[in-house]
Structure formats: structure tokens, C-alpha cells
Amino acid sequence: MPAIDLHHLAIKTDDVDATVEFWNNVIGSHSVDRPDFGFPGAWLQFGETMIHLYGGETALNKEGGHDRGSAAIDHVALSARGFDEMRALFDEKKLPWRQMDISSFHLWQLFLHDPNGVLVELNFDARQEPPGSAGPDGNNVYDPGNF
């Protein structure tokens, strides 16, 4: 039987609270109950997918520090709605972001980093966006090698 969906992704963080705030208040997940594993962390839910956050000693690398970025995973891509509102929220929160319009696929994209340096890609079906949505404007264009 093949895999059928992404169940969760796990992020090791040196700041659980800031990471919860970003994912819940910027991306739109919500906190859910988490068992006591004996180390700090949080579980966040959106749709059928979860994000598991690891804090404390469990989040340390072999050298005793905290890794940044996505390591071998290049980015986390999520389906989203409300391109214009999300871009305005990023500006309001003074978060650096990039955008892309792949018009041949009816795809608008926004890119930003979470507090741990994980690249988050938000994909919007332009055909499903509210009437009058502006979408990407050609500024701040995403360059995979330079963001």
C-alpha cells in the first residue's frame, strides 16, 4: 500500500515559543494536545498535517548546538488560500518574503523562513483566490539560490 498523505514534519528548535507563534499566528496552524515526552515541545495542526516541535536537549545536534535551516530538506511546501492577505500579514510582521507567479500552472507562491531558518513555501491556486486578488506583482521575486 502506498503512502497516502504527509502526517507530520518535525522541527528541532532553540525557541519553542517563537516557533509556535510563527506557525500559529503567521502560517495559520493551531496548537493541539501533546503527550509529555519529558522534553519541551509542541504539536501544531493544520488540515490533516501536523508539525512536531522538539525543544531542550532533544533539539541539540551532536556538537551540542542548534542546527539552522532545513538541512537536507530544502523546504516545506503547503497549500494555502488568501495570497494578498498573507503577503500583507508578512509585511505587517516585518517578515522577509519572496514571491513567484507560475502562470502556466495557475500557481502563486510566497516564500519565507520560520524562526529556525526552515524555508516555507506557500502555494496558492490562482483560480481559487477571491475575485479581485492582485497576486504576485513582479517585485521581490524568489531566487532559490539567494534567499
Q: CATH top level of the largest domain?
A: Alpha Beta
Kindly report the name of the CATH homologous superfamily of the largest domain.
2,3-Dihydroxybiphenyl 1,2-Dioxygenase, domain 1
Q: Number of DSSP strands?
A: 8
- What about the largest sheet? 4 strands, mixed
What is the spatial order of strands in the main beta sheet?
Answer: 1-4-3-2
Low-confidence stretches: none
Mean pLDDT: 91
Shape: globular
| Count of spatially separate domains | 2
Radius of gyration, CA atoms, in whole angstroms: 16 Å
Number of helices: 2
Secondary-structure element series: EHEEEEHEEE
CATH architecture of the largest domain: Roll
Please estimate the helix content: 10-25%
